[in-house]
Request: fold
Amino acid sequence: MDENLETVEIIPSQRGNDKIKVYGYLLVKERVLKNTYYWCCEKRKSDKCKGRAITIFYDGSHYLQKHSKHIHAPQASSGNVAKAIACIKQQALETRDQPMQIIQSNIINVSEETASNLPSQNALRMKIKRIRRTEIPPQPKT
Ligand SMILES: [Zn+2]
Reply:
């Protein structure tokens, strides 16, 4: 396997239809032949975009083989929004930081566009509280 090949980012989906992000474009899996994956643009139907990508799956990563042009601008934010929320959830579980602190520290790390697509700070704060209530066992008294 050529180590210079670019790996692509996998965006996990709740419905099991994993997507990949290539140069800011999101593509959905179309078919798989052995370890070769064929992807088509998520806007194939809505925008009649013919953007496609082919990746080789090797050792846990997708390596980009081919990528064709899209007819629209990259859709960077939806993947970034999911990633920012995942980060916030993780920090909610792994740290004892105040919810506002967690939210602020994540918002400064994302682009303005991504930040504008995130749920409101109030909604994020509720999310953090809910995660902590359900997943953190009570502190043992020593
Ligand atoms: Zn496209």
Summary: The chain has two domains: 9-67, 77-135. The chain has four helices and six strands.
